[in-house]
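Extended Data, record 3'-5' exonuclease
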Amino acid sequence: MASDSFPSVRAQVPQCSKPEDATVPVHIVTHASQLPSEFLNPSADSQLVVGFDCEGIDLCRAGGLCLMQLAFTDAIYLVDTIEGGDALVRACKPALESCYITKVIHDCKRDSEALYFQYDIKLHNVVDTQIAYSLIEEQEGKKRTPDDYISFVSLLADPRYCGVTYIEKEEVRGLLRKDPNFWTYRPMSDLMIRTASDDVRFLLHIYHKMMDKLNRNSLWHLTVRGCLYCRCFCINDNNYADWKPPPIPDSLVTEGYAPEEEILSVLDVPPGKMGLVIGKKGATILSIKESCNAEILIGGSKGPPDKVFIIGPLKEVRKAEAIIRGRFVTW
């Protein structure tokens, strides 16, 4: 399943570099005509793998989308949604929803939420490197503790995948804390351009390293969980009827491996009861996570504040639902 037809990204910038890397151009895009035609017109004849990320103001359903970054093997495109407007984002909709273009992204949940609620874009065919990292760790027999999600900076630093230090990331985080409108300013500063580029610069390199490590079963889980994570915060009225995960491949069943169905459950929390679910300093929700083999997510400050999102095998999700509902009854 390794993608030998797509060479690793090679890049070099002052703050995020590898000795063997070569420079790739960075293009600021304000009109769809500046993007590669094979991206704008997805086709089974020219399937692509691209690194992808978004920047914005407190990015979520309500936070403003300011920039989309796309990393190809030979160039990086910074899609300026402020200068290009809605028309530019909508021109990217076929590609972002296409099964012919693989989008490699680290932690897709909030980016997907922003695209869905602001532009009616259902992010599809995602390889989430945060999920892939956890699956590889499980493959190698390492037990992951609840909430042990690798950060993008830590993933870049891991010598098995990249071995890169990301010096400027913390600087930008500090600037964002002081000024949440950081990504709205135009023209973009050199720091903005470097940071936006570095957020996708090595994603294809990491992708190929991960594809070489993942076995067939893990690849299946990566596909399903990527779909479920994309739609996690994208609550709609039809219970995701138009956004279904892929069916289990026949090849896994014939090989004697029939993985349990994995689902996303959205649990409504009665008004004033979320504190009972979370507990003092998060102790209750941590205990629930430790007792169930499922991911349990809470909207938090970005919302939605009255719901719990549970992702995992069907039986484990139902178990988590029962425990959480029990908190409402007993208190």
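Summary. The longest strand covers residues 48-56.
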